[in-house]
Amino acid sequence: MRMPGRADRTVFGRWFWTVDRPLFILFLILISLGLIAVAAASPAASQRLSGANFKLPELFFLKRQFMWVAIGLPVLIGVSLLPKDLVRRLAVLGTGLGLLLLASLPVIGAEINGAIRWIQFGGFQLQPSEFLKPAFVVTTAWILSLRFDDEQLPVFSLAGSLLAVTAGLLVIQPDYGQTLLIGAVWAGQALLAGLSLAWVAALGVAAIAVLGAGYVFSPHISGRIDRFLTGEGDTYQADRALDALRSGGLFGTGPGGGEAKYSLPEPHTDYIFAVIGEEFGILACIAVAGIFLAMVIRVLSQLIEEEDPFVTLAASGLAAQIALQAFVNMGVATSLLPSKGMTLPFISHGGSSFIALCLTAGMLLALTRRNRFLKASPFGAKLQAAE
């Protein structure tokens, strides 16, 4: 396909010359690495989930991942084409719909492993909280950005109320991990918007209180924390993940050569980082972590000269959401954090999670689009604002 010229005013032409191509390439690299990682994990996951009366093909989950990529990539690119105002409106609408679906889960949701987080239809499962996260981050950014136009507006109260409602609905599921994740992102955005350190400290205390409530009222949560702190009890998941990482060494056993992965719980989702370590080595794990770090650095570098507070708050929040989720997944696989079912962004096999992350990446690319050739002139600034 011929590269569009700089004078090309078609939708694709404007997108090509305004999108942050290094950031776009980083997302494509993560998705490509995900296909390789799922290919390595698929035989173990298929064997583990096969039943007495049925046997899943070895590459069952790889084929499904190709399907999710075929759906997710158009979502990513399509959302990245949107103007910033439309991204904001989409996020506000998505937040409202997401909260409605979360509130409906006790009635229409399906219980899996003691939690009601999914809506089942046909052979698929929809997890509303995954789609709510990016919408919530952008909506919060919009509310907080209003104070830069009028400091008298009670934006922190409004954004805090939205956080409280969202956190309450997530705790009911229960899903303490997602609650702490969105709370951490919200705190970062509020701090950037000018919230005092005293209030940020109060939020930290509230987060500890939420975790404490989970410890007291949820045997599942307390068991995970106790195993992490004492090393006693059922530490099967953490032990198997460490076994996989140790067996891979620096350079790994080679594609398809891993054996420890067959003992891993959820090798294609929650513990795919351990599969990467076993088959491709610790150096590959460091490279994956480095790509997430490069993504964050790229976004922050793009925001240095950004004058729109909404864009700054939204883009930094979305980048933080992806990075924190990756940190939690890698921390669990390496036993640096208590066990928590959270996927590795763009790499783990998944439906709702993967599509929602493509939506997140698309929003991030849309918000960081700019005309790098014309922005120095007044005309260029007007053109950029129009786009």
UniProtKB/TrEMBL annotation:
InterPro entries: FtsW/RodA (IPR001182). Coiled coil: none annotated. It is an enzyme of class 2 (transferase). It holds the Pfam family FTSW_RODA_SPOVE. One of its GO terms (molecular function) is peptidoglycan glycosyltransferase activity. It is found in: Membrane. GO terms for cellular component: cell division site; plasma membrane. It comes from the Bacteria. Its EC number is 2.4.99.28. GO terms for biological process: cell division; peptidoglycan biosynthetic process; regulation of cell shape. Keywords: Cell cycle, Cell division, Cell shape, Glycosyltransferase, Membrane, Peptidoglycan synthesis, Transferase, Transmembrane, Transmembrane helix. The chain crosses the membrane at residues 65-83, 90-108, 153-172, 184-217, 271-297, 347-367. The lineage of its organism: Bacteria, Pseudomonadati, Pseudomonadota, Alphaproteobacteria, Sphingomonadales. This is Probable peptidoglycan glycosyltransferase FtsW. It is a multi-pass membrane protein. Its main location: membrane. Belongs to the SEDS family. FtsW subfamily. It catalyses: [GlcNAc-(1->4)-Mur2Ac(oyl-L-Ala-gamma-D-Glu-L-Lys-D-Ala-D-Ala)](n)-di-trans,octa-cis-undecaprenyl diphosphate + beta-D-GlcNAc-(1->4)-Mur2Ac(oyl-L-Ala-gamma-D-Glu-L-Lys-D-Ala-D-Ala)-di-trans,octa-cis-undecaprenyl diphosphate = [GlcNAc-(1->4)-Mur2Ac(oyl-L-Ala-gamma-D-Glu-L-Lys-D-Ala-D-Ala)](n+1)-di-trans,octa-cis-undecaprenyl diphosphate + di-trans,octa-cis-undecaprenyl diphosphate + H(+).
